Amino acid sequence: MNQKIMSIDEKDLSISHIKDALQGITKQHKKVSKIETPRGFVKKKLGFDYVELSYMKSIANEQFPGWSWTIIKSEALGSEAYVVHGRLKWFDNGVWREGDMVAAHRIQKKRGTNEFVDVGNDLKSANTDTMKKAFNVYMDIAADVYRSEDPTLDDNQIDKIMDLADKAGMVGEISEKITEMSINSGNYKATIAKLKRLTK
Fold first, then answer.
1. Which of 97, 94, 91 is nearest to 5 (CA)?
2. Residue 180 in contact with residue 138, Cβ under 8 Å?
3. I need a surface site. Which of 18, 24, 37, 143 has the fewest CB within 10 A?
4. H or E stretch at 50
5. Residue 103 in this model has a pLDDT that exceeds 90
6. CB-based burial label for 75 (10 Å; 0-12, 13-18, 19+)
7. What kind and span of H or E run contains 194?
C-alpha cells in the first residue's frame, strides 16, 4: 500500500499555506467519515458487512470530484485467487494525491471439481474489492461500516507539528509526510518527540 503527494507549487510552500491545506484535508476527511451509510447499501457476506461499490463511487463523485482509478497490475495466484494492484488518484483541497491498494478475490470453482464457475466475474470482483478498499482507506468513505480508524491529524496536532517543523527547517519534508499519511494520529507523539530533539 503506497500513497504520495502529487504536487505542490514552490511558490505555495509557505508554512501558513501548508497548514491551511493540511487542515482543509483534515476537515474534509472527518466530514466524509461521519456520513452515515444508508442501510440499503449495506449487505452481508459470510457474517461481515460490506458496502456496494455504486454507493462508494457516488460519495467519491460528490466529495472528491475528478478522481480516477487505474489498474497497475493484475495477476492470478495459481488457480486459487486473482490479485489486483490499483491506484486511486484524487484532488483533495487543492492537492493532487494518489494511493495504491492491493486486494485479492478467490476464484470460484464448481463444488468438488477444479472447473471454474465464472473467471470473468472473479476478475471483476478482485478489481471491485481493491477499489472499495482504496475508497475506504484514502477517502474515509463508509467508515461507519468498515469501522476504520481515522488516521488524519486534527488541526491542533497539525499546528504543533508544523511549528516544530518550521523551527527545524523541515517544512516541506514534514508536510509531505503528513499528506502521504506516514505521519498520522498513530505516530503523532513520536513525531513531536523527534522534532523537539531536532530543534534543541
1. 97
2. no
3. 24
4. strand 48-51
5. no
6. exposed
7. helix 188-198
Signed CA dihedral, 76, 82, 85, 90: sign only: positive
Cα–Cα distance for residue pair 60/135, rounded to 1 Å = 8
Q: Residues 57-63: contacts with CB within 8 Å, 24+ apart? A: 57/135, 59/32, 59/35, 59/135, 59/139, 59/141, 59/142, 60/90, 60/135, 60/139, 60/141, 63/28, 63/31, 63/32, 63/139, 63/141
Query: What is the sign, positive or negative, of the torsion defined by CA atoms of 52, 56, 61, 65?
Result: negative
- Mean pLDDT rounded to a whole number for the chain: 81
Number of residues that this document lists for the chain: 200
Sign of the four-CA dihedral 159, 164, 170, 176: negative
Confidence at 46, pLDDT banded by 50, 70, 90: low
User: If you average pLDDT over residues 115-140, what whole number do you get?
Assistant: 80
Please give the model's pTM, rounded to 2 decimal places: 0.67
Helix axes 15-33 and 155-168, enclosed angle (nearest 10): 150
CA 11 to chain centre: 27
Cell numbers representing residue 69 in the block: 482509478
Mean pLDDT check: name the lowest of 97-101, 159-163, 175-179. 175-179
